[in-house]
Amino acid sequence: MAEEVLSQNEIDALLSAISTGEMDADDLKKEEKEKKVKVYDFKRALRFSKDQIRSLSRIHENFARLLTTFFSAQLRTYVQISVASVDQIPYEEFIRSIPKMTILNIFSVAPLDGRILLEANPNIAYAMMDRLLGGTGESVNKIENLTEIETKILSRLFEKTIDNLQEAWSTVVDINPELDEFEVNPHFLQMVSPNETVVVISLNTEIGESSGMINICIPHVVLEPIIPKLSVHYWMQTESKEREPGEYEALTNNIQRAHVDMKAILGESTISVEEMLQLKKDDVIQLTSSIEDPLALKVDNETKFLVQPGKVKNKAAVQILEEYQGGDYDDE
Asked: Where's the Flagellar motor switch protein FliN-like C-terminal domain (predicted)?
């Protein structure tokens, strides 16, 4: 059983009680010898190990960084998002812990079963709304009065976070999130049974002068197929995994079949717009290069070879003289 850690205030209070005689040190020793019983609540069954909780925390720390960048660009203001806690609790307890009226985004995460929930506190949601509509980012808690336009703006904003969610989870599993529902009343939402264990990741969120929480609720049924991938052992294997023997050959073959644009530059010249407008048939434009100079052969607009012009079977062609090493034909 894990030992309880006392705070400094508790330690001071304990020492004070012993010194004043309110508590006897011998009685404390007797209590330590007695067997301690810890109450276990079967309604709060712990279905995830600490190792798996740490992996989920690591995934959503990355998600929080991605969201910070995304919302900063969308709202054009100071945004700071960080993971506050990761807990496993019954679904019913999570529903009771959030406001009666809030912003609820329900995502399907194919190919995983079930759905996940992203809940944004009204303080945060209306700060976002105010910024999107050109305001300073002030929060007004009137979530029960959402208009159709406000609902559309907020749902589209959170729908755009799908790419960030997909990238954050890409180290474990490739998912294709889609926004299925947008709700404001959690009591109208029944994702899983009330006693189902869910993981709740709480994100501290600051947007301008407003602050609040964004909670991500992931039911056990969603994570069950990938629980083995949430272990440290799997992460270590993934990071140290080497390429398969055939991958390099396949990559080389794909590169060799790629098409590139090539062009030989006969020469260049500079004329004024007036001179260009007066050009007519049989006029001669003097180029800066000599007829004896090699031509520059460009691959995707970058000079790669020096060549000389000619013909092959009555078709214009160039012969490569040498590889370009920089100099007169440098584009920079």
From this structure: 254-322
Same domain, 185 and 273: no
pTM higher than 0.70 for the full model? no
What is the domain count for the chain? 2
Phi/psi for 188 (5° steps) reads -90, 0
Sign of the Cα pseudo-torsion (300, 303, 308, 309, in order):
positive
Please answer whether residues 91 and 187 qualify as being in contact, where contact means their C-beta atoms are separated by less than 8 angstroms.
Answer: no
Residue 1 domain flag:
no
Tell me: do 54 and 179 sit in the same domain: yes
Domain of residue 173 covers: 44-237
- C-beta separation of 115 from 106 below 8 A: yes
The verdict on 53 and 197 lying in the same domain is yes
DSSP labels for 131-143? HHTTS-------G
Q: Per residue in 216-274, pLDDT tens?
A: 999 988 988 888 888 766 655 555 455 566 777 788 888 888 888 888 888 888 888 88
The residue among 72, 81, 71, 210 whose CA lies nearest residue 137 is 210
Q: What is the layout of strands, in order, in the sheet containing 302-312?
A: 262-265, 295-299, 302-312, 315-323
Element (H, E) at 33: helix 25-33
The H or E element containing residue 270 is none
Residue 22 has φ and ψ, to the nearest 5°, of -70, -20
Tell me how far apart the alpha carbons of residues 48 and 223 are, in angstroms, rounded to a whole number: 10
Q: Do 186 and 297 belong together in one domain?
A: no
pLDDT above 50: residue 297: yes
Token readout for 140 is 């007004």
